[in-house]
Amino acid sequence: MDLQTLTYIVVGATFSLYIGIAIWARAGTTGEFYAAGRGVHPVANGMATAADWMSAASFISMAGLIAFKGYDASLFLMGWTGGYVLLAMLLAPYLRKFGKFTVPEFIGDRYYSKVARMVAVLCLIVASITYVIGQMKGIGVAFSRFLELDYATGLYVGMAIVFFYAVLGGMKGITYTQIAQYCVLIFAYTVPAVFISMNLTGNPLPQLGLFSATADGTPLLVKLDQTIMDLGFAQYTAQKGGTLNMVFYTFSLMIGTAGLPHVIIRFFTVPKVKDARSSAGWALVFIAILYTTAPAVGSMARLNLTNTIQTGPVGEVSANLEYEKRPQWFKNWEKTGLLKYEDKNGDGRIQYYNDKNPEFAKKAESYGWKGNEMTKVDRDIMVLANPEIAKLPNWVIALVAAGGLAAALSTAAGLLLAISTAISHDLMKSMFTPNISEKGELMAARVAMAGAIAVAGYLGLHPPGFAAQTVALAFGLAASSIFPALMMGIFNKRINNTGAVTGMLVGLGSTLLYIFTYKGWFFIPGTNMLPNTTANHLFGIAPEAFGAIGAMLNFASATIVSKLTAPPPEHIQHLVEDIRIPKGAGAATDH
Amino acid sequence: MSTQQDSAGVAYWKANIRLVTICLIIWAVCSYGFGVILRPVLDLIPVGGVGLGFWFAQQGSMIVFLVLVFYYASAMNKLDRQFDVHED
To answer: Do B73 and A277 lie within an 8 Å CB cutoff?
Structure first.
C-alpha cells in the first residue's frame, strides 16, 4: 500500500475515534461543559493535561530546536516541565478546593473586584488566542504536508473536527478525546525514537541511548560534537548563551506554564483536592515521556543528517554526498521546501557547513567550497523526517502525521475551551446577563466556543506576521500577571483588591514594554526602539525571559500597595483560610 | 470555626509551607543549580562522554520534578489526616 493511502487510513481512523468519543461524551449541564462534571480520574486527567499542554510546537518543533541549539535548549526542557511542580504545590489543589469554573472567577472573588476579573479575562484571552494561532497553523501544515491537501482545506477539516467534539461535549468531550490524542501522539513520537536510538547506540531506550556509545565506541554526544565542530558549527554540548539569561528564561517558562489558564482549568475536573495534587504528578509523567525523549531525538537526528551529507573526513572530495545519490527522504522534503540545496561550486556534491564561522570558512575555501550549500534545513524536519531517515516502515510515517495532528488538535481544543468559558461565564454570566438560566449559559458557552473556533480559524488562514513571536507574549502574560495574582491570592491573606490590580498591571505593563521595545510595538516590524540583540538587552536578558522579572515586579508592587491600604474584609480572609484546607471540597462541587 | 480548629488549621498550614519550601529548594537546586549554574562543577563527573551537569539539564531535572510532585502529594495526604482536614 502506498504511503498516501496509508496516511489517509491512519488519520481517518484517529478522527473517527475522536468523533465517536464526542458522541458518547456529550455535555448536558454547565458543570459538565466547564469541568466534565468533576468526575475525571486523576490519572486520566494527567493524560488529558499532557495532551492539552503538548502542542504542535512540542511535538514537531522542540526536538529540532534542541538539535540546532544543543545544551542551550535545555531551558525549554526544564522550563516546560518545572512549571508542573509549581502547579502541584502552589496552585492546583487550592483552586480545585475553591470549586469554581474559571481562572478569572477566582481572581475576581478573591480580590472582590470586577476590575481584577476583567484584567484576568483580558490576559487569558490574549494569551490563549496568540497560542491557538500556532495550533491552527500546525493543523494546516500537517494536512498539507502529509495528505497533500490544500492548507486551507486542511484547516477547515481540523476546525470541523474540533467544532464537533468541543461544542458538543465541552470539557467532558475534550477530556476524553485528549486522552485518545495523547495515546496517538506519544506512540507516534516514541516509536521512531526507539528505532533510531537502537540503530545508533544499540540501546532501545532513547533516554539512555543519548548517553551511550556508538558502534565505534565513541559516546554519541562526543561524536556529535566532533562531527559538527569539524564543519565549523558550534559545540553541541557547550553553553553558548549567558547564564543569567538562561536562568531567567527557564524561570519565565516555569511560572508561565503554571499560569496558563487552559492548563489550570484541567485540574478543576478531578473529584478531590488530593486528586489535583497527584494528577499534576501524572501529567508530568506523561509529559516527561516525550520531553526526556526529545533531546535524544534532537541529537540523533542532527548526527544522522550531518553524516548523510558528510560521509567521511572533511576536506576529502569523495566524502561529500553526490547530489544525484541523495536518499529518497531528501527528495521528498525538498519538494516541501523545508530542505533546499544550491550547488554553489558546481561540483555536483553537497557541502553542508557553517560558512558564518570565519576561521572555518577560510579552510573551506581551500577545499574549493564556495559557501554552505544546504541553504535551508528547517528545524521541523528533525521530527517529521525522522522515520524516513531511520528507514522505518510506511505505517510509522503515517503515524507521525496522525500524532502531529493529535498534538495540535488537543491543544487547540483546550485553549478554545478556556476562551469560551471566559466569555460565557466571566463576561456574560457575571457582567452582562447575571440572570441567565443554566440552559441559557450552556447555550452561550456553545455559541462562544463556535465563535472562538471561527476566530481561531480565521487567524490560522490569515496568520498575522507576528505569529511566531507571540509565544513569548503568551508566556510573558501568564508569568507576569496571572501566576503572581493566583499565588498571592492563596499564600498571602494581606493582598487586597488595590494591591492585586496594581500588581497585575505593573507585571503586565513592564513585560509588554520590554517585549515591544525589542520586538516592535504590537510586533509591527521597524517600530522596535532597540535592536533585538544580546548586547542591547538589559543585563543580557532576552524579551522571552522577562516574564520572570515582570512577575517579581508584580509581587513587589502588590505587596507594597496592599500594605499601604486597608486589609481585605473579614469574609475574604475566611475564604483564603477555607481554600487552604482540603476538608469540605465535596460541598463546593455542586456549584 | 472554633478556636481549636483554628489553631489546628494554622499548624497544618505551617507544616504545609515547610514541606513546600523544602521541595522547592530541591526543585531549584536540581534545575537552576545542577543543570545551569553549577554545571561546570558537576561536569567533572563524566556521564556518557559529557558530564553530570548536562545530564541534569536534559534528563535528571525532569526526573527529580516527577519524584518531588509524587512525594509532595503523598506527604500532604498524611498531613491532611494528621490534622484532620482531609476530605470525606
So the answer is: yes
pLDDT tens digit sequence for A531-582: 888 888 888 888 888 999 999 999 999 999 999 999 999 999 999 999 999 9
How many angstroms separate the CA atoms of A518 and A541, rounded? 11
Give tens-digit pLDDT for A475-498. 888 999 999 999 999 999 999 999
Q: Which of A465, A467, A381, A457 is nearest to A153 (CA)?
A: A457
> How far apart, in whole angstroms, are the C-alpha atoms of residue A166 and residue A172?
9
- Name residue A31's amino acid: G
**What are the tens digits of pLDDT across the range A46-76?**
999 999 999 888 888 889 889 999 999 999 9
Angle, alpha carbons A154-A4-A340 (nearest 5°): 75
Q: Which residue segments constitute the domains of chain A, with CATH numbers given?
A: 3-303+389-468 (1.20.1730.10)
**Residue A375 belongs to what H/E stretch?**
strand A374-377
Model ipTM?
A: 0.95
Q: H or E segment at A334?
A: helix A328-335
Sequence-distant (6+) residues with CB within 8 A of A575 are: A109, A110
d(CA A197, CA A200): 5
- B12 to chain A: which residues are within 8 Å by CB? 580-581
A236–chain B Cβ distance below 8 A for any pair: no
List % helix, strand, coil for chain A (3-state, nearest 5).
Answer: 75, 0, 25
What is the residue type of A383?
V
Q: Tens of pLDDT along A147-171?
A: 777 888 888 888 888 888 888 888 9
Task: Determine, for residues A221 and B50 on separate chains, whether the beta-carbon distance falls below 8 Å.
Answer: yes
| Chain B partners within 8 Å of A585 (Cβ) | 87
Q: What is the pTM of this model?
A: 0.92
Entry field: residues in chain A: 591
From residue B43, how far is each of A413, A575, B35, B48 by CA, in Å?
42, 48, 10, 11
**Burial (0-12, 13-18, 19+ Cβ within 10 Å), A451:** middle
Query: Inter-chain contact A211–B48, Cβ cutoff 8 Å?
Result: yes
Number of C-beta neighbours around residue B26 at 10 A: 17
Considering CB atoms only, which of B20, B37, B80 is closest to A89?
B20
> Count of residues for chain B?
88
User: Which of A225-229's residues contact partners 24+ apart within 8 Å by CB, and which partners?
Assistant: A227/A303, A227/A306, A227/A307, A227/A310, A228/A302, A228/A306
What are A278's three cell numbers? 497527584
